[in-house]
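Consider a typical record:
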Amino acid sequence: MKAAAGHAERRRTPYNTPMRIFLYGISALSWWLSAPATPGEGNRVGQNALRNCKPNDAAIQYLARCCPQIPRPYHVAVSARMKRCPDGVAPHRSQFKLTGKPFCRVASGIYAPCPELCFVQVANSLDLHELVKVGNALCGTFFIDPKARNGLGKRRPLTSVRRIGAFVGRNPGILGAKPARRALDLMVDGAASPPEVFLAMALGLPYRLGGYQLPGIAANRRVKPSSKARAIAHRNTLVPDILCESSRLDIEYDSNTEHASATQLTRDAQKRLALEADGYKVITVTARQIGSREEMRKVAEQSRRRMGTRLRPQSAAFRQQQGVLFRTGWSLSRYHRREWLKGAPESVAAALPCSTPADSRTAPECSPLSGARAFSGLESTTLEPILPEIEEIASPGITPRGKTPKM
């Protein structure tokens, strides 16, 4: 009897737990953009964990309490077509056979596609500029944290351009693979804030997409200074914000918040002098300049002069695509609830309809993974004040209630 009981207990896996929710697409992106860290390998599960997964009203209430940052409708993956879909839910049916363990347990009973799969899922519903922006954010070193002074926290990158490319290579037929491949060629690793994401796009995207096509763009890549530069900077390595190594060009972003402190101004001046001592051309860009096409053109012209070439946008679509690029901007606020961005993540479970009072009693208490807080409290990176653009809007590619699309 004890052996049988032990065997039954061992079989209580993600495949048969009473309440399981698998985030999908835009909702998973909302989670990852605000996640301080990636759960450890022990929290990875295979596609079989999705078996018999059909979230009910109680599960959605639980999700709302656990993840107050995710706006409605909630995009979730399901194993089969649902006859009745809870209000405020957009289900997506999974049929493609994924390799490996592509899902992560991010809280008790809540799973998200790994960052690589999440990127491919949203690739089918976002336009190219927006896709490159969120891809750069997933590959960046920041996360959205409304409790931080600048609205950002610091973390290790969730993924990289190379890892996303490898995932698509292992799953070539998955929905979203084609637009994902196109975006990967335009992305960079290591951006430390949303403005840096946009700065890399504005300077590095090809003319046909509205960028200034500066070659060899890299974000926050460490360089080893000379002994003279080390003496000036009082550090052993320097990290230019946007680097064109072949031209020894550094483009620095100075925000209106963190860079205003006396300590940070001193460090920036030391960094700039050290780079110039090693022969780098340093161009400083402010938030006001990033938001202006005219100012960004001046920055691009200075950069091109350093490279010994001229700025010649010859694409007929340049002006129109640049308008799209600047309307895309750097804000990521559309992927989170406005109340949460204001720093008041109250439970939103009460706003969701429940079929019976008993459903709310069956929902367990929220229990995020302890490892998810590994990077909380680290020094914030720079960010302009967050201006929420959309409050609980339907994200691109929303599926009408009751219809379950194929993944």
